[in-house]
Design goal:
2 strands; 2 domains; Bro-N domain-containing protein
């Protein structure tokens, strides 16, 4: 077994506990990137697209806000709710900057 993964005892359908390989999200993404198979290619392309979008958001934070608004809209939230949510995030961010150590 690779040091890449951890192992946890998990209950199987027969009721017994067996050591099972586990990984966090970052480890899974790294595993996908290392698979030399055409079947892994769609996942690799998706990871590259997500990384590109994230880098664009770092360069232009407004894109991140737009993405968040689209996400909430797809989940069925109203424009009023979305705007209130964004305002509450901004207020929380501002109030955190007031914290004095």
């Amino acid at each position: 077994m690779s040091d890449f993964f951890g192992q946890l005892k998990m209950q199987s359908s027969d009721g017994k506990f067996y050591k099972t390989d586990v990984a966090d999200v970052e480890q899974l993404f790294r595993l996908i990137q290392s698979i030399p198979s055409p079947k892994a290619e769609p996942f690799k392309l998706w990871l590259a697209e997500i990384a590109r979008k994230r880098l664009e958001e770092v360069d232009d934070p407004e894109k991140g806000i737009e993405r968040l608004m689209e996400y909430y809209h797809r989940k069925g939230y109203s424009v009023t709710w979305i705007n209130q949510r964004l305002k509450s995030i901004e207020v929380a961010k501002d109030s955190n900057s007031w914290h004095i150590d």
